[in-house]
């Protein structure tokens, strides 16, 4: 086979350091757009970016030319530096060290898009910790609770 064909959709989730609630209007939409721009620069087409006050969800098509860890490193490092320039109150902005990344069946894209679109409504009843634990359980991901929240 001479042609390499790849189509991997990833749902990436990470939070602000210590889950501080720092992602608010008027910067929320700008931050989402900036994260999408970084994904595009890495040839990882974003389908939707959203989140809540303390975390981000990115649904993108992962390029066959970049490792997932490298994409996330680029997204987090570049955006963190940029976010700090938005307002003096964000001068100590940091993302958490880790992340979650979940593969998405192409037939489930619409479900994930709707889930990300409805983050504000969703988090009226469920905090990020419980949301993230549910993702880990749903995807049967082994984890050590002591290290998930650092």
TrEMBL record:
One of its GO terms (biological process) is DNA transposition. GO terms for molecular function: DNA binding; transposase activity. Coiled coil: none annotated. SMART domains: Y1_Tnp (SM01321). NCBIfam families: transpos_IS200. It holds the Pfam family Y1_Tnp. This is REP element-mobilizing transposase RayT. It comes from the Bacteria. Residues 6-119 form the Transposase IS200-like domain.
């Amino acid at each position: 086979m001479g042609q390499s064909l790849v189509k991997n959709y990833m749902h990436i989730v990470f939070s602000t350091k210590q889950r501080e609630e720092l992602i608010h209007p008027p910067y929320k939409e700008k931050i989402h757009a900036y994260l999408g721009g970084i994904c595009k620069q890495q040839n990882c087409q974003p389908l939707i970016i959203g989140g809540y006050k303390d975390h981000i969800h990115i649904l993108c098509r992962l390029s066959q030319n970049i490792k997932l860890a490298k994409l996330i490193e680029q997204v987090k490092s570049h955006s963190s530096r940029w976010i700090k320039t938005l307002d003096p109150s964000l001068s100590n902005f940091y993302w958490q060290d880790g992340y979650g990344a979940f593969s998405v069946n192409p037939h489930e894209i619409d479900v994930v898009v709707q889930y990300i679109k409805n983050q504000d409504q969703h988090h009226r009843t469920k905090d990020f910790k419980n949301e993230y634990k549910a993702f880990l359980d749903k995807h049967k991901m082994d984890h050590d609770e002591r290290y998930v929240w650092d």
